[in-house]
Amino acid sequence: MANLLVPLMAWCNRHLKIISAVAGAVMTAVPLPAGAHDWYPKDCCGGNDCAPAESVLRRKDGSYEVFARGMSVLIPSEYNEWKRSPDGRVHVCVREHLLACAFRGPGA
């Protein structure tokens, strides 16, 4: 029985090295999507202050009510500090219950 294990272990070891090499090459060649916090400006986001909107309600007065991370954020119609969102979605950054930054795509 021991005589059978040696060739089997050698075969597994050789193929495991090949599989590992191929997997490593694929993982380095294929870019993974960046997390949202990778693109938020540092002056807006302290690491977990920003999130994409779960829903956005445009109110009759032109303001936006944005729901994100279990919170409701009201962005007044006269808010003129919108930043461009690279994914086209609305995002908000909230610090100490105050709006720090808001992002939106074109036409939003």
Oligomer: single chain
Q: Kindly report the average pLDDT value.
A: 75
- Arrangement of strands in the largest sheet: 1-6-7-5
Give the amount of beta strand, in percent: 25-35%
Which percent range fits the helix content? Answer: 25-40%
Domain module tally = 2
List the total number of helices.
1
Note poorly predicted spans: 15-36
User: What is the H-and-E element order?
Assistant: HEEEEEEE
Word description of this protein:
Helices cover 26% and strands 29% of the residues. The chain has 108 residues and is α+β, with helices and mostly antiparallel strands. It folds into 2 domains: 32 residues; 69 residues, no CATH class. The strands form 2 sheets. A 4-stranded mixed β-sheet has the order 1-6-7-5, with no helix packed on it. The chain has a 3-stranded antiparallel β-sheet with strand order 2-3-4, with no helix packed on it. About 20% of the residues have low confidence.
Overview features:
108 residues; alpha+beta; 2 domains; 4-stranded mixed sheet; 3-stranded antiparallel sheet
SSE blueprint:
Layout: H1 2-29, E1 50-52, E2 55-58, E3 64-68, E4 71-75, E5 83-84, E6 91-95, E7 98-104
Parallel strand pairs: 5-7
Antiparallel strand pairs: 1-6, 2-3, 3-4, 6-7
In short:
The protein is of the alpha+beta class.
